[in-house]
Each structure stands twice: as structure tokens, then as C-alpha cells.
Amino acid sequence: MPIKSYASTVLSAPADEVWRFLRDFGNLADWMPGVATCAIEDGGPADRVGCVRRVIGPGDTVFREQLSGMDDDDRFYRYRMLESPLPIRDYVARIRVAPVTGGGGSFVEWQGEFSADAADEEAMRKTITDAIYNPALEALGKRFS
């Protein structure tokens, strides 16, 4: 059974504005704490399904992630992990932005699923939620405050 990670936040900025920023699959270093660099590997467009971003994180760790789907109408993209220093497998995730009715803000959610050895499951769920998703969404909130 896949392990699930989830985090969400409400931002004061309109959903279309937040989505215009987040839909750039190559701008992770602009908003995620701990990311030193992020670049699309072949230099192509950052919204092309199939493109791969190379992320350099803490301690020069390397993550490679592939954009597997994007929907501008519903404001979400999906991606999968190709390479990671974490002891996880089959990681897939989705980031979605939705308008908050009555206020003009936006709701952002980030959810992922992955597999891990039994001994690593809980630690990896907590790491992904508490050390990746939550700090990133908090930083996004500051960016759009």
C-alpha cells in the first residue's frame, strides 16, 4: 500500500496569480527552503510534460523529477521522482491551486504517494510532509502575503 503525504495552506493572493507562479516547474529554488538550484535539464520549457528538473538541495543532494501532467484549467501539475537520496520508491505527487470562494484567496495543496521499506515508512512520510511540503507552503505564503 502506498504511503501518503499531504499538506495544504490558504494564501491571500488570487488563485490565478499563485498558479502563474507555481506552474513553472523549474522555479523551485525561488520558493522552496533548502533548494540551492533548480533547472530544467535540457533547457526546454518548464511547462512541457515530460521535462525533467534537476534540484540541488541541502548538502548538494540531487533530486530529479519529471513533469507528468499539467492542467491550467484546474490549476495543477503532477510529477514523479526519477532520482532521490531518500530511501523511497515510486514517488508521485500533485500540487494544486484552487480559488477560495468569498475572499479572493487561494487554497494550495500538495499531496504525494510513495513506497519505502517498512522500517523507513513513517520517517519518510514525516520527512516529506514536515521537512519538505510544510516549509515550502509556508514560504509560499510569505511570498504571497
TrEMBL record:
Highest taxon above the source species: Bacteria
Pfam families tied to this protein: Polyketide_cyc2
CDD domains: PYR_PYL_RCAR_like
Classification via InterPro entries: Polyketide_cyclase/dehydratase (IPR019587), START-like_dom_sf (IPR023393)
Protein name: SRPBCC family protein
